[in-house]
Amino acid sequence: MNKPILEVKNLTRKFGDFTAVNSISFAIQKGEVFGIVGPNGAGKTTTIKILTTLLPPTSGEAFTGGYNVVKQPSKVRRIIGYVPQLLSADGSLSGYENLLMFAKLYDIPRKEREKRIKDSIHFMGLDDSADKLVKSYSGGMIRRLEIAQSVLHRPKILFLDEPTIGLDPVARETVWEYVSAISEQGTTVLMTTHYLEEADAMCSRIAIMIRGSIAAIDTPENLKLSVGDKNTTLNKVFEAYIGKSIDSEEGGNYKDVSRTRRTARRLG
Amino acid sequence: MYQEQDVLQEDLVEKFHPFTEILSFFRKTLVITELEVRKLKHDPTELFTRAIQPALWMLVFGEVFSRVRAIPTGKFGYLDFMAPGILAQSVLFVAIFYGIGIIWERDLGIVHKFLASPVPRAALVTGKALSAGIRAISQGIIIYLLALVLGVHISFAPLSILGIILVIIISAALFSTLSLIIACIVKTRERFMGIGQVITMPLFFASNAIYPVAIMPDWLKVIAHINPLTYQVDALRALMLIGGTSMYGIPFDITALLGSLFILIAIAAKVYPNVAK
Fold first, then answer.
1. Mean per-residue pLDDT for B116-137?
2. The dihedral of CA A46, A49, A51, A55: what is its sign?
3. Residue A57 maps to which CATH number?
4. From the CA of A243, how many Å to the nearest CA of chain B?
5. How far apart are CA B133 and CA B165, in angstroms?
6. Residue range B3-17: average pLDDT?
7. Which of A58, A78, A149 to mutate to test the interface with B (most CBs of B within 10 A)?
8. Between A and B, how many CB-CB pairs are < 8 A?
9. pTM for this predicted structure
């Protein structure tokens, strides 16, 4: 095994008495598309926030691209791209301006800037709407723009937090295609999702996260085998790990629900 | 889209010189300001609606009080005395609610993306503060037009105008950074609006904006002297009016304002990452 590009050791994060992430450990190799799946409130977003330096861990260590997220945050920030779960493109700017501002903030040299922006607008299929205000975009277009923005500086690791939440099935598949293309070009991807068919279609390995802990971590095929049937769906695997009592597990708290619905409404 | 597999970002990780760091800080600050100004260009309606309040103060309050002659304003008429005060007030009002935008960006997720980028926190904060300064200049233009119509004795000396622009930018940056700090601490719109309302009026009334400090009771004088708005008004009054004079000296006023601004920016850069938690 090579040295992993991302490594997490006994990572824990508490909010008061509540333990959002409970001593998790895993490692990701370069080039992987790694998925974290789990119900709302499982600790997926908290994990991503720690790995992207937004939130300090309560204990344990995390290395993103070999850099310690607590001790070397500015080095981590240079080599990552991040698409938050919430809507992060600026609606009062045009698509082009959203990209231009980030190109400048990431020190992309002037002579290369225009070409990169043009290429990424074209790649994401946004040629006709680049000069329109993002307010007027559809949910799928906004997500594509956000992904374009997050890879403009050619990050080594791309973090996608629920990239297809609130999108219709067609827009969702388009996002999958673009993420696959980015992965094929050598970027390591870490994504969270609660759509299991999405994890199955895209991820080389999956961690199932429940109540802050990792219940299982393996390739989709092996996870299916682990419940005794390689032709089963990930849904069944998920149910086997999480227990059938979906009611008591799922849903998160009032804040999670309102936040998810709000995001869904904005994107939809 | 990845034709040339460049190692640009990694090169930048390795390079570290204090001088290039400082240059980069100013460049990033200006990019954040540019971003805010571009937003304003797409939708400038806000600038016009903001003109209504100062117009009311000048036309109603100013006209009435210049008739009753209740306030000792020395050699100036009351409208002359009050015009720089109202300019300071409208700068304060524009800037003090600036933080609501941060809460809005937090609810959306925009803040998270900026905080996960390599842009220094202080540059994010200073860039926003400067853009508040640019917004506030539009207020200056509106007050100058109103004051002209009302016959205020305005000085149009180029140095005065330059000084006015400088004072407006510094004070708007100062109060918008204060607003940003409050937003980062309270995190919700409702609480923010409450606190904004609560601090605006005391800041305004415990200053020399519409009456001189000399007529205040002693306890209020003390507050007025630690209120940055007092020094803003003092500098504006000296620069804006023909024959205007400063109580504390313009260099002292500007030093007081800049000093407060630096302290607030340092605090803001510390608390700003809290909005993403």
1. 94
2. negative
3. 3.40.50.300
4. 31
5. 9
6. 52
7. A78
8. 111
9. 0.86
Place of tokens 């086997």: A240
Give the ipTM: 0.87
pLDDT number for residue B4:
44
Contacts of residue B119 in chain A, CB cutoff 8 Å?
A: 105
> Helices (DSSP H) in B43-99: which residue ranges?
45-49, 52-56, 63-68, 78-96
> B13 — contact with chain A (CB < 8 Å)?
yes
A115-136 burial: b if 16+ Cβ within 10 Å, else e? ebbeebbebbebeebbeebbee
The upper half-sphere exposure of residue A132, i.e. CA atoms within 13 Å in the direction of its Cβ, equals 12
Of B9, B24, B34, the CB nearest to A153: B9
Share of chain A above pLDDT 70, in %: 90
Six-digit token pair at B141? 């233009």
Residues of chain B neighbouring A155 (CB-CB closer than 8 A)? 9
Average pLDDT, chain B: 89
Answer yes or no: is A12 within a domain: yes
| Confidence tier at A241 by pLDDT (50, 70, 90) | confident
Rounded CA-CA distance A152/A136 in Å is: 22
Q: What is the C-alpha to C-alpha distance for residues A157 and A144, in angstroms, rounded to an integer?
A: 17
**Residues of A with Cβ-Cβ distance to B109 under 8 angstroms:** 84-88
For residue A49, the chain B residues in CB contact (below 8 A) are 112, 276-277
Instruction: Give residue A165's domain range.
Output: 6-86+157-267
A199 within domain boundaries:
yes
By the CB < 8 Å criterion, does A105 face chain B? yes
> What mean pLDDT value characterizes chain A?
88
pLDDT tens readout for residues B45-66 = 887 888 888 888 888 888 888 8
Among chain B residues, the shortest Cα distance to A116 is held by: B1
Question: Is A101 in contact with B31 (Cβ distance < 8 A)?
Answer: yes
Structure tokens given for A122:
């074209």
Is A116 domain-assigned? no
Dist. CA B194–CA A223, nearest whole Å: 52
How far is Cα A237 from Cα B18, in angstroms, rounded to an integer?
A: 53
Beta bridge partners of A208: A37, A216
Look at chain A and report how many structural domains it folds into. 1
List CB contacts of A257: < 8 A, sequence separation 6 or more: A40, A251
Tens digits of residue pLDDT in A133-172 = 999 999 999 999 999 999 999 999 999 999 998 888 888 8
* Nearest Cα residue to A51 out of A199, A188, A157, A144: A157
Please check whether residue A126 lies inside any domain of the structure: no
